[in-house]
């Protein structure tokens, strides 16, 4: 009994609290929430491989479009890009679609009766050339799947290594540029479709089918443009890192905070100061990273060498003919001119010029950034020689990089760069002046009057 009384007495001292029926709501603090979000972003591990990588996530809308057109038969296996037989179905499907489209277009051209026979010849030649280029792009995609996958994986390995060295890449600008590019292309091709339907009195299905051939070749050209631009961005970042890690000149203090160290093959020179505030790279690491990028760029240029030639030939033919038609119709048929037809030709011209500019700017930018690295490495060696003039046995080991110049060749005939585009524009202007504004006849004459 005494034991029961003791238990009862203890229970009276520790009475159970009845849970409240009301839910206890914690007040929302904006500052606390922002701090938690920032902390989560800092602790989140950035991925540089696989479908969740920063670059792939930024350009996924474009990649999806490429897959639909059969130009990206790839998939990820263990975070590595590999050829995909499932996605290859889209490639073969579009090969069949292109064959069906060109058959329909030929039937339409045969049934048309034009005032000038040369128009039928020119239009048939243009659509045939574009069809052959589109088919070549699809066949090339099939046979270079493994090579392209290696280039992509090497690029992702480069990003991961830079991140480990303390220089992680941010792809926010790439994501913004991707969406701007998509919207601009949607606007251009929608304008081409709508103006073409009304100008030529075509159905939406036929006009879209005809345009599909050109969208396919444009997508293939922009695929190359994107890969070259990504390599150019990495060359630019590596050049910036190399400049930051240059040894200080003799008689000048280093512009970097912390300590500085330079490795010269079998000897290390280390100047301690305070705790390192940033990751300092030696020349050998810079050379290895540069060599990796050069191998990827050279492999990409080798794959698309003939494609570049065919793209430029195709775009040049269409640009020249469209521009000539516009000038000829404006000058000779001013009173009875169809503005819808002129608008459609201008929309096509804008699409072709955008592709020409994209190819030339990307190649020129990447080659400029890649070929600037040897200058930085030579400057690096020169500073070491001035600093250690009595131990220059291993100096200027980077002279061979001056002979290793990055080039994007069009079938081995010429290199793609902006100076080439300017010379082409100059020749086009001279040709238009000679053909249309013929001084010998006292004014302009139409080239088609000879037919």
Automatic annotation (TrEMBL):
Signal peptide: none
UniProt xrefs under Pfam families: 7tm_7
Domain of life: Eukaryota
Keyword presence, Cell wall biogenesis/degradation: no
Any one Gene Ontology cellular component term annotated for this protein: neuronal cell body
Cited InterPro entries: 7TM_chemorcpt
Segments crossing the lipid bilayer: 54-76, 88-106, 176-192, 204-225, 303-327, 339-363
Record key words, sorted: Cell membrane, Membrane, Receptor, Transducer, Transmembrane, Transmembrane helix
Membrane topology field: Multi-pass membrane protein
Protein's cellular compartments: Cell membrane
Any one Gene Ontology BP term: signal transduction
Chief subcellular location: membrane
Family membership: Belongs to the insect chemoreceptor superfamily. Gustatory receptor (GR) family.
Function: Gustatory receptor which mediates acceptance or avoidance behavior, depending on its substrates.
Record-given protein name: Gustatory receptor
Organism: Frieseomelitta varia
